Amino acid sequence: MDLNAIESGSAQFTQDIVSGIRECRVFLFMLSVMSQKSEFALLELNFASKKAKVDRQKHVIIVNIDGCQMCDEFDFLYGLTDTIDWSNLPQKEKLLRDLKRWLG
Description:
It contains 4 helices and 3 strands, in the order αβαβαβα. The protein has helices spanning 13-23, 41-54, 72-78, 89-103, and strands at 26-31, 59-64, 83-85. The longest helix is centred in the last third of the chain and has 15 residues, at 89-103.
């Protein structure tokens, strides 16, 4: 989550995103109709997934926040990846327990 107000179009925009993803322990991707239309969302998810393959302490979680279907591009790349359905209470509770454990 951008807590530092990364300014779109700034000279450091991409560098700030890459740095944030590289430094995080948990990358929560909020899948929605809108995120699938984002110019950078798939790039961010791909980069985080690549980093998690190298660093087993890093977790990448896809959370479907609006019940949308994955568009073809996301489905092609992440269709077989477990996705948390935010409207499913047991899945949400398990995610919150896991986050507490992963983040200490």
